[in-house]
Amino acid sequence: ESLLPFDFDTFWASGQRLWAVAADCRTGRALFYEKHALGPDFFTAVRASASMPLLGSMVKVGRDVCLDGGVANCIPIPADLPFPAGKTVLVLTRQQGFRKPPQSRPVQRLYHRRYGAYPALLAACLAQPEVYNAQMERIDRLEAEGRVFVIRPSTPVTVGRTERDKAKLRALYDQGRAEAEACLPALGAYLGL
Predict the structure, then answer these.
(1) What global pTM score does this model have?
(2) pLDDT in tens, 128-184
(3) Distance CA 96, CA 32 (A)
(4) pLDDT tens digits along 114-123
(5) How far apart are CA 36 and CA 49, in angstroms?
(6) How far does Cα 70 stand from its chain's mean position?
(7) DSSP secondary structure of 117-174
(8) Cα 10-15-16 angle, rounded to 5 deg
(9) Are 86 and 148 in contact (CB under 8 A)?
(10) Which of 41, 109, 122, 175 has a Cα-to-Cα distance from 6 of 20 to 30 A?
(11) Whether the Cβ atoms of residue 14 and residue 66 lie closer than 8 Å to each other
């Protein structure tokens, strides 16, 4: 609102639909919030959609108690969405072939301590590596069939989710931008532009 003011008037006047995905802490399932349906509370849903497990706090969106949508639906693709989708472009944060390793026992214990009162959420958190890996297999098949277009890093990302080193973050940003720009001709062909 002050350093880089957001143009709320244009945002709300736009007919473009925008969705935020959060995980319902009571059910462990994905909740999809649409900006016009939710109104001003949409920004609370956006905050919930980025509230990382163990690091962030649960966020109330209306009557729902939520965390990061990736807990329930790590990478939504058209078949997973509650609305019709056209051509799909996925922007991934890991290189081709990356798969999540199993969670360590200490991390599993942290999940149990923090979310034991929410059994469905706990189950979703504990299942994340397997669910993520299965989704990546699915995405690889869809990409090979030409049914989705994927933009992803060409090399392993060495920047962690809680990185604070501005130089490392800038280098990753620059790498991502360069790799996305290199994809533009192929993306245009996929989209029929």
Answers:
(1) 0.86
(2) 999 999 999 999 999 999 999 999 999 999 888 888 999 999 999 999 999 999 999
(3) 27
(4) 999 999 999 9
(5) 17
(6) 5
(7) T-HHHHHHHHHHHHHHHHHHHHHHHHHHTTSEEEE--SS-----TT---HHHHHHHHH
(8) 90
(9) no
(10) 175
(11) no
